[in-house]
């Protein structure tokens, strides 16, 4: 997976979440897959969040699809 701009998928996701008032403190690149010798893109770690953040994320996703 290659980005066509100067930001990484993690940075893009963080910005999109922040635009919806959501912060996932553990959001980042999964270091074991980042350091892997295999030619696959690293995984994105979404991490843990509290219930309020999970509700806000659910609401933002539902709003995005018009549900």
Describe this structure in words.
The model has no long low-confidence stretch (mean pLDDT about 85). The N and C termini lie far apart (about 30 Å). The chain has a two-stranded antiparallel sheet with strand order 1-2. The longest helix is centred in the C-terminal third of the chain and has 15 residues, at about 50-65. It is mainly alpha-helical. The chain has three helices and two strands; from the N terminus they run αβαβα. It is elongated, with a radius of gyration of 14 Å. Helices cover about 45% and strands about 5% of the residues.
Fraction in beta strands: 5-15%
Which regions are unreliable across 5 or more consecutive residues at pLDDT < 50? none
Mean pLDDT: 84
Largest sheet: 2 strands, antiparallel
The shape, in one word, is elongated
Structural class: mainly alpha
N to C succession of SSEs: HEHEH
**Helical stretch count?**
3
Summarize the structure.
This protein has 67 residues and is mostly helical. Helices cover 45% and strands 6% of the residues.
């Amino acid at each position: 997976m290659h980005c066509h701009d100067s930001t990484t998928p993690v940075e893009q996701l963080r910005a999109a979440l922040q635009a919806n008032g959501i912060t996932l403190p553990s959001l980042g690149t999964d270091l074991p897959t980042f350091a892997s010798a295999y030619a696959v893109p690293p995984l994105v770690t979404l991490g843990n969040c509290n219930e309020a953040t999970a509700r806000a994320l659910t609401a933002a996703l539902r709003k995005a699809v018009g549900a």
